[in-house]
């Protein structure tokens, strides 16, 4: 299992990763993020958004990406923008 493409961390996901690492750091400190997620897949909450095969999109700004991907725009508005206002 490997992450290919974009990945977003909400505050909730980040807090869960910190919680897991607080008791498993010694055994997990050398894992790359893909292997960490695979190991704790039942405890982490995230979703996969399929992309077209063999196409790589590049964006210069966050606004360009938000225009391209309305799922990310909703994610950003719900999790990231609300946290920035705190």
Rg, Cα atoms, Å: 15 Å
Estimated share of beta-strand residues: under 5%
Distance between the termini: 35 Å
What is the H/E string? HHHH
Overall pLDDT level: 78
Share in helix? 40-55%
Assembly type: single chain
Number of helices: 4
Class computed from helices, strands and strand pairing: mainly alpha
Inertia-based shape: globular
What is the strand tally? 0
Largest sheet: none
Runs in which pLDDT lies below 50 for 5 or more consecutive residues are none
Offer a few descriptive terms.
4 helices, 86 residues, mainly alpha
Structure description:
The structure is a single chain. By secondary structure, the chain is mostly helical. Helix content is 55%, strand content 0%. It contains 4 helices and no strands. Helix 3 (62-68) packs across helix 4 (70-84). The mean pLDDT is 78.
């Amino acid at each position: 299992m490997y992450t290919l493409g974009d990945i977003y961390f909400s505050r909730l996901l980040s807090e869960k990763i910190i919680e897991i690492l607080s008791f498993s750091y010694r055994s997990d400190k050398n894992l790359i993020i893909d292997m960490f997620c695979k190991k704790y897949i039942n405890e982490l909450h995230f979703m996969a958004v399929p992309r077209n095969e063999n196409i790589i999109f590049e964006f210069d700004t966050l606004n360009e990406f938000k225009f391209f991907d309305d799922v990310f725009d909703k994610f950003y508005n719900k999790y990231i923008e609300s946290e920035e206002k705190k």
